[in-house]
Amino acid sequence: MAALFHLHPPLSPPPPSSCFLSPATTLTHLSSSRTKTTHHYKTPALNSEPPPPAVETFWKWLSDEKVVSNKSPAKPGLVQEGLGLVAQRDITRNEIVLEVPKRFWINPDTVSASDIGSLCGGLKPWVSVALFLIREMMRDDSPWRFYLDVLPECTDSTIYWSEEELLEIQGTQLLSTTTGVKEYVKSEFLKVEKEIILPNEELFPFPVTSDDFLWAFGMLRSRAFSRLSGQNLVLIPLADLINHSPSITTEDYAWEIKGAGLFSRDLFFSLRIPIPVKAGEQVKSTTDAVFLTEKINSNSPHDEHDMMEKYGEPVLIQYDLNKSNGELALDYGFIESRSDRKGYTLTLDMSESDANFGDKLDIAESNGMGGTAYFDIVLGRPLPSVMLPYLRLVALGGTDAFLLESIFRNSIWGHLELPVSRANEELICQVVRNACKSALSGYRTTIEEDVELMKGGNLDPRLEIAVGIRAGEKEVLQYIDGIFEERESELDEYEYYQERRLRDLGLVGEQGEIIFWEPK
């Protein structure tokens, strides 16, 4: 049983994420004038700087193309998260904020219609779009230039942390996942470099590196919309500027694809907001920006209200209610303080050296599982319903192994939903608790030290993420350990299989006493 439990997340290839850039010899358009987008959830506010010229040029391009106008409900602005959408007027709940026609989308269809379309037919969709973004970024005459120039150079996603920064999440599952993602992206790059980039120098007359590929991967992971009818990977210029709010808890999707009209085949991406937003005057000059900074930094209780009245509220949505803090940190570069964002993945393996491995595997597969099972544990929530039965199955042996016989095959899972024997239940408690203690020992800090750091405040944004992640994982590990510690203390109170069987046969009374058969 010692090797049955692996406290690491699955490292399966992830869907497309955000950004180390290449040296100045490549992606030269990614200059310091570009906006860096980060996500840290404090008071929503406009930034202390006016939008850079590239943002104004981007807005003019959209205006010239009739996508937006001066009457549009929202436009780009610098907010505390970075670049976002800010209300130009009062916006009501569920009002459409913007509509972007299909000709402005970037998706696999866009790639197919481009100069490199014929080369990308056999590629994964995200790989083809990533390659397209890199090529367009390097072209001075790209029709997407105005959009590309407002893309961020990086986010605070852990894939882009330095080695020194990654040391702050040593021992965490997030570090394992981050490493796996970077290795996955690099392997995909090496394949596309060999098969497409190097053999087609006329289409790629510039060096492309794995860091460039990671940048494009990051833009897709952090900005692409999914769960759309017929569109599982699409970048929507302007719409992808909308930021996340932890206070929005509705799961209603804020976006949809719809037709332009009864007699039109045109499609539009339509974005609604789930909450009302107040209007306000936008930052239009450096003077206004300085005023805003002073308002934010002062101690007046009316500052936040006055600021929103003058500058307008950011337009926000909920990205995904089901993602853990680890996923949020990996995808977007932020975390939340809510307990239901704190999670840990227990990975349970059946040992192939187990004499009963074949029978156990067959039982697991008959119940929709396999030789390896992943269980996502969320702080404060009950354990997944199939976790204890699976644990009991993996630990089954000795005098309990008779339950693996074929005669019990159709009923064994029902038996595993309840304690099998004291020895079996005690074993799973001990192994899980030992695994939790082992995982806790792998961190560089204690949870008490993390709490003190968070209390002190003024942490660097990435250190704030690191401390929050490792403290959250430790909380969940302690929570799991506490559950099994309690189970261990109650072992003498459980009713086990043999007792249940005797009760079913009428051989045990209500108080657990043995009923002896006496002849008449």
TrEMBL record:
Residues the record lists as binding substrate: 223, 227, 240, 255, 319, 332
Protein name according to UniProt: SET domain-containing protein
CDD domains, A to Z: SET_RBCMT (cd19179)
Molecular-function annotations in GO: [ribulose-bisphosphate carboxylase]-lysine N-methyltransferase activity; protein-lysine N-methyltransferase activity
Domain SET: 65-288
InterPro entries: Rubisco_LSMT_MeTrfase_plant (IPR011192), Rubisco_LSMT_subst-bd (IPR015353), Rubisco_LSMT_subst-bd_sf (IPR036464), SET_dom (IPR001214), SET_dom_sf (IPR046341), SET_RBCMT (IPR044431), SETD3_SETD6_MTase (IPR050600)
Binding site for S-adenosyl-L-methionine: 81-83, 223, 243-244
Compartment(s) where it occurs, according to its Swiss-Prot or TrEMBL record: Plastid, Chloroplast
One GO term (biological process): methylation
Similarity annotation: Belongs to the class V-like SAM-binding methyltransferase superfamily. Plant protein-lysine LSMT methyltransferase family.
One Pfam family, short name: Rubis-subs-bind
Annotated Gene Ontology cellular component terms: chloroplast
